[in-house]
């Protein structure tokens, strides 16, 4: 299958003014030439095939947005090669923009005071969409979401969920080759999140659109992405299938135990931490529950269980496969 | 032609959007009435203190007509481009405008044409009709046609100036000061607050070499001409065309350089 996006050793450096504190410092900054270089994206290489949905993950400030801005042609990389749909985006910004769609979860690209249908008509003219394609697309949308009540509502009167939904529809309207979704489900309720995920999956399947999804919601990743790319501090940490990730962390289990409330003391937790940290177990607590992420290659669940029981009485227990969230957290903090 | 369509679509959307804000239009008309009342009394006292009814070649009536029309032009000319650009840069919304498949400058310009046309129809035309009915001082003839050409050039010049000032917002995070400074300079040197005829010689010279004159004084002079010959209006239109082209090139160039700066050094 052809590649939709290719990044080769992309690096992006920013020059940032060294700011000084206080009034005096601020005045000095006015004349200061004292810049430091910050590497936002550090030697990232990536190939994304047409029709893939890739989860692009990383903690805040990892360089995700910068990479996306490079892929949309807004930023020019300091070094490295980039091709989107066979073109270099920063050289051919306008023509690149015809073939991509963008959704930033916290902002709307729609015309605030216009009814949605007017925004759509405007996009139709801006992207020069043929009448037939436009009508087909609206029919297709109507078949997957309840479009009619949205169409005649001004965007400013919409709920956040409706607005996000509309924004996503707008970004796919001109049948782009690639769509960048930046935290599309941020701030939405559970039902709306699931609607949005279904919508993205349906359009991707129907139109074979490549989707780059950045999110902090592992539910999005589980529902949509077969492949994930993780970056942190500008460096790529992981790029592989979800399956592979699960396999690597396959020997991990999360053991949750409910402890008698009188025994849930800081001393108790400290004693657990002292005892199990040599085995790489991470411990977190919530109400009367203690969660232990256990690597079974290093210590058996049964041993942990009896170890806990020596100091406290267990009222209830749960044993779970490691969640994607936990996996990502581990990669962020420890690497793979 | 199809290329034109995407720009006209922006004009159309702007008109529809503008129609949604009826209250804002009413408030603005009301604000103008207050402003014009102040102007009326101010200039009446200026003329009352003068020994002759004609000051600097202008009568009280012609001064007032000039200023009323200047205010009306200001209303549709001022599109708060600088605010908008500054706000978009600060909030990062500009990213969404930059991923549109057209140049940002054209995108913004055509987005403004809708409101401009609406303001022209709802504030300039009524003002014009009222002034005409009350004073019968505006000649109705070929000058109107020249005026239309002149006002379109003025809109283009004004937009280029605004766009250039707005571009500064890419560097500076303070929009407010820049915008106020721009407004004061443009309104003063264009003759919108005080007719250029009243300027002392030195200041008049400065004003004559600056482009701002072409924004208000140019179209207004043409409008108040009685059945002008083409040779009467040509110098004004030529000057306007010169500035329109110059400032267009300058603003495009400045934007390109600035955008490169931003895309290279981040923002």
Describe the model.
The complex is a heterodimer of chains A (336) and B (267). Helices cover 39% and strands 29% of the residues of chain A. Chain A has 336 residues and is an alpha/beta fold. Chain A has two domains: 244 residues, Rossmann fold (3-Layer(aba) Sandwich); 85 residues, 2-Layer Sandwich (Alpha-Beta Plaits), CATH 3.30.70.1110. In chain A, a hairpin with a 2-residue loop joins β11 and β12. In chain A, α7 packs parallel to α8. The model of chain A has no long low-confidence stretch (mean pLDDT 85). Chain B is mainly alpha-helical and 267 residues long. Chain B has one domain. Chain B has eleven helices and two strands; from the N terminus they run ααββααααααααα. In chain B, strands 1-2 form a two-stranded antiparallel sheet. The longest helix of chain B is centred in the last third of the chain and has 36 residues. The mean pLDDT of chain B is 86. Classes of the chains: A alpha/beta (336), B mainly alpha (267). Chains A and B meet through β1, α2, α3, β5 and α4 of A and α1, α5 and α11 of B.
Brief synopsis:
Chain A is of the alpha/beta class and 336 residues long. In chain A, 39% of the residues lie in helices and 29% in strands.
Instruction: Identify the quaternary structure here.
Output: heterodimer
**Envelope shape of chain A:** globular
- How many helices of chain A? 13
What's the mean pLDDT score of chain A?
A: 85
SS elements, strand count of chain B: 2
Q: Tell me the series of helices and strands of chain A, N- to C-terminal.
A: EHEEHEHEHHHHEHEHEEHEHEEHEH
């Amino acid at each position: 299958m052809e590649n939709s996006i290719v990044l080769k050793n992309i690096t992006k450096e920013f020059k940032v003014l060294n700011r000084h504190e206080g009034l005096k410092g601020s005045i000095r900054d006015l004349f200061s030439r004292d810049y430091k270089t910050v590497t936002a994206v550090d030697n990232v290489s990536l190939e994304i095939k047409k029709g893939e949905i890739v989860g692009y993950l990383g903690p805040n400030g990892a360089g995700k947005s910068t990479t996306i801005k490079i892929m949309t042609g807004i930023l020019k990389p300091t070094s490295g090669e980039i091709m989107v749909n066979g073109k270099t985006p920063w050289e051919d910004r306008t023509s690149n923009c015809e073939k991509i769609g963008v959704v930033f979860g916290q902002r709307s690209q729609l015309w605030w005071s216009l009814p949605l249908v007017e925004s759509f008509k405007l996009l139709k003219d801006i992207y020069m969409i043929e009448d037939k394609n436009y009508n087909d697309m609206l029919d297709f949308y109507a078949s997957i979401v309840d479009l009619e009540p949205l169409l005649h509502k001004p965007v400013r009167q919409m709920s956040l969920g409706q607005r996000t939904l509309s924004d996503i529809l707008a970004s796919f309207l001109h049948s782009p080759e690639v769509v960048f979704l930046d935290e599309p489900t941020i701030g939405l309720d559970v039902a709306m999140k699931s609607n949005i995920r279904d919508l993205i999956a349906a359009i991707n399947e129907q139109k074979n659109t490549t989707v780059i999804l950045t999110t902090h919601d592992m539910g999005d990743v589980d529902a949509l992405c077969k492949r994930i790319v993780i970056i942190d501090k500008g460096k790529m940490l992981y790029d592989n299938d979800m399956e592979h990730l699960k396999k690597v962390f396959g020997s991990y289990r999360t053991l949750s135990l409910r402890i008698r409330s009188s025994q849930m003391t800081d001393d108790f937790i400290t004693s657990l931490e002292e005892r199990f940290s040599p085995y790489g177990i991470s411990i977190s607590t919530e109400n009367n529950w203690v969660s232990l992420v256990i690597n079974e290659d290093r210590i058996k669940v049964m041993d942990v269980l009896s170890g806990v029981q020596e100091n406290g009485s267990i009222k209830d227990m749960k044993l779970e496969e490691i969640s994607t969230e936990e996996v990502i957290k581990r990669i962020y903090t420890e690497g793979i | 032609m199809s290329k034109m369509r995407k720009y006209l679509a922006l004009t159309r959307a702007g008109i529809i959007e503008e129609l949604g804000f009826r209250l804002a239009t009413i408030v603005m008309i009301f604000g103008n009435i207050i402003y014009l009342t102040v102007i009326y009394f101010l200039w009446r006292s200026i003329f009352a203190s003068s020994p002759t009814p004609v000051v600097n070649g202008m009568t009280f009536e012609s001064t007032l007509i000039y200023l009323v029309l200047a205010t009306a032009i200001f209303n549709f000319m001022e599109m708060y481009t600088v605010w908008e650009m500054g706000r978009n840069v600060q909030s990062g919304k500009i990213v969404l405008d930059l991923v549109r498949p057209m140049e940002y400058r054209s995108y913004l310009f055509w987005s403004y044409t809708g409101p401009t046309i609406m303001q022209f129809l709802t504030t300039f035309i009524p003002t014009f009709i009222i002034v005409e009915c009350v004073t019968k001082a505006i000649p109705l003839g070929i000058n109107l046609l020249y005026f239309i050409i002149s006002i379109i050039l003025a809109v283009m010049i004004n937009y280029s100036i605004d766009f250039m000032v707005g571009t500064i917002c890419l560097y500076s995070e303070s929009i407010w000061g820049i915008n106020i400074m721009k407004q004061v300079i443009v309104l003063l040197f264009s003759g919108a607050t005080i007719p250029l005829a009243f300027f002392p010689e030195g200041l008049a010279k400065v004003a004559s070499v600056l482009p701002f004159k072409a924004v208000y004084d140019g179209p207004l002079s043409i409008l108040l001409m009685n059945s002008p010959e083409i040779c009467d209006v040509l110098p004004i239109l030529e000057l306007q065309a010169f500035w329109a082209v110059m400032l267009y090139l300058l603003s495009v160039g400045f934007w390109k350089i600035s955008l490169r700066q931003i895309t290279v050094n981040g923002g």
